[in-house]
Amino acid sequence: MNGLELARGYYEEFGKPMLETEFADILPFLAVGFVGSGSEHYGYDDEISRDHDFEPGFCIFLPNEDIVDRRRAFQLERAYAKLPKEYAGVKRQNISPVGGNRNGVIRTGEFYQKAVGSANGKLTLEQWLTLPDYALAEAVNGDVFFDNYGEFSKIRENLILMPDDIKLKRLAGNILIMAQSGQYNFVRSLKHGEPEAAQLACVEFVNAAMKVNFLLQDRYMPYYKWSFRALKELVGMEDISEKLSFLLFSDNRDDAVAERKYDTIEEIASETIIELQERNLTEAICGDLEKHAYSVNDKIADSTVRNMNILVSVGE
Predict the structure, then answer these.
(1) What is the pLDDT of residue 43?
(2) pTM of structure
C-alpha cells in the first residue's frame, strides 16, 4: 500500500465519519485530499521512503476565516488529532502543530501560498517564468477526494496548465540549453581533454531534454529524485529515457563510447526537432537546435515575453 492508498483508506474509514458526524455544519465548505511535497503524493514511495514523513493522514482544506472561523478550525484540528494513531500497520507521527506539516487542517490560501507564492493561485508573469517545475508539480499532484466548496479545485485547475506563451518561453530556453551543452560543449570538452566537463555537459543536456519532453506533454517535471521515473510514465518516452540514461551512466574516457554518446545526443536532437516541426512550433529547417530554440521563441504572441532573454525561465 503506497501513501496515496494509505491516505484514502484512512480518510474513508476514519476521517469521513468524523467529518460527517462532528462537522456537518462546515462540511459544505471543506475539501479533502492528499497533495503536496514528498514521494507519497506522486505514488512513488516505497519501503525506503518510510524512514521519514510517512504516516496515515490526509489534508483538510478550509476557506478563509470569514467562512470557517478560527474557533471551528481549531475544533477540527483537535478532532483530526484524535483520529486513530495507527492504520494498516503504519503509525502516525507525533508532530506539532496539530496535523503536522504535510497533513491535517490547512487553509487553502496558505497551502497555495507555500506551494507557488500565491494564495489564490494567480501568478504574475515573473512567477510563471521563474517558478521551478517541481513547485508547480507539488501544487497539482496527488489526489482530491472531494471538494464541496470548489475553491481548492478551482485554483488547482488554473495551475495545471501554464499559459501558452510561458510554455513556449520555457521550451525555447531549454532547447537552447540542449544545443549549447549537447551539440556544442560536449564535444569541445572532450577535445580539450576534459572528460569531467564533458559529463557536466551531458547532465545539462539530459536535464534540459527531460524538461522539454515534460513541457511537450503539458506536465510539470517533479523534483529531480523522481524525474526519471516520471519521464518513463509519459507516453512514448521509453526510448528516450533509455538514451538519456546511457548519457548519464557511460564513460567519456573511452573514445568509442564517447562517440556513441555524441551520436545519441544528435539522435535526441533530431527527434526533438521532428516533434517541434510536427506541432508547428518551429520554422527552422536544420539540425541545429539553437536555431530551433529561437524559432520557438518567435512563436510567442506577447511581445514582452518574446523579447525577454531566451534563458529567463531556465535559471532554476
Answers:
(1) 84
(2) 0.92
